[in-house]
Design goal:
By secondary structure, the protein is of the alpha+beta class. It folds into two domains: 16-334, Bira Bifunctional Protein, Domain 2 (BirA Bifunctional Protein, domain 2); 347-425, 3-Layer(aba) Sandwich (Rossmann fold). The chain has 15 helices and 17 strands. The protein has helices at residues 16-33, 47-54, 80-90, 134-152, 163-172, 178-186, 193-202, 207-220, 229-237, 243-259, 307-310, 325-334, 357-369, 383-392, 403-407, and strands at 37-38, 44-46, 64-66, 72-75, 98-107, 119-128, 156-162, 224-225, 268-270, 284-290, 299-303, 318-324, 347-351, 374-376, 397-401, 410-415, 421-425. The strands form three sheets. Strands 1-5-6-12-11-10-7-9-8 form a nine-stranded mixed sheet. A five-stranded mixed sheet has the order 14-13-15-16-17, sandwiched between helices. A three-stranded antiparallel sheet has the order 2-4-3. A hairpin with a 5-residue loop joins strand 3 and strand 4.
Length: 433
Amino acid sequence: MPLGALRGFRDYVPPDAGARSELFRRFRAAARRSGFQELEAPSVESLELFKVKSGEEIGEETWSFRDKGDREVALVPETTPSLARIFVERAKAEPLPVKWFTHAKLWRYEEPQSGRTREFSQFNLDILGVPGVEAEVELLQTAAVLMDDAGAAGLYAFRLNDRELAEGLGRRFGATDRLGYFRALDRYRKVSGSEFASALDAAGVSSEGVEFLRGHLDRVGSGGSLAALEPLLAELGALGLGPVADAGIARLRELAALLVPVGLADRVVYDPTVVRGLAYYTGIVFEAYDRNGDLRALFGGGRYDHLIELFGGAPTPACGLAIGDQTLELLLRAHGQWPEGEPALDTYVVATGPEVLPVVLAIVARLRRSGVSADFDPMRRSMSRQLREASRRRARRALIVGRKELARGQIVERDLATGDQREVPRDGPAGPA
């Protein structure tokens, strides 16, 4: 029986493992620059924790089992329920606002496809305690820094909508099947105009509503820019959607105004087809997407003001986003922006014979203690093989330890980019030149 990786799981060997590590290092650094603090949660939680958020059906999508204590547990499929549990446990001791980021390996039992595996890594940003759109501004601004630092600058944009506005539109035009109505909106760009109209009709939307929605979405096009947002919102406001939906319109206006001074006006569009999870999001929702349109949503998020209450906490405004690694990797690879892998080695120390090995080891140890990345050949290969290995490791320089030079208290330093070399004191090269 072959013992390869299970279906839906991947091995990450060098240099890919190093590239992924570098990607998330950039994410962590960007999150910290924006004032987020790292949270780490368990990889196994009670299955009930996820049922509280997503219902009984979540059991079909998890790697769940009974442990040796006969408890129903699951490999964690998402981090937000864990975050909510931890926040409720610490609420009295945690000053607001809370700005947490997590980087976790997650598991979902679903059909593998391009950009989706059963085991994956996810980077989350969450803000708790902020009732206004300042939280969404902070999330989108930080997400933009993350994406730019990852190498995706110019390759993505954000689509914005408001769930309460979307629901108000459905009510205004008679939608009786809320789920079917949202599915129709979500599939607007994936089906023909007649199929879209049929889906709205099946959800109970009136013929007047079908006509209005098709016209409104046609006017939005591939995504209404912030400059074109006001006429579109004015059109919706004139429908008399009620105070709840009107509050959604006001939120979008306020958010759009604040996104201009933070420099995001060029990468944010209004998109009424963005609705996200039905039982989860409560206000503004958003997705990041590939500007070329070749990939599905890169990641998404939004406001979830009622989640903390589900876990027994006090009413707490909250919003967040989750960036998965798979689709983002496809985007970065397609544009030649995937990290190279492990950082280049600074120094490779070359032994010209076994008798100089003690000196080689001493130099390597001294360099490492001083903060310089250094390595040597433990296989006692020829000098030419060692130099080829130094080049393969992208080393900046080689320190060549030879008997004749050692007799003078010297070794040879060779610049591996230019080939230039010089003699330096054997005890001298403690760091980069």
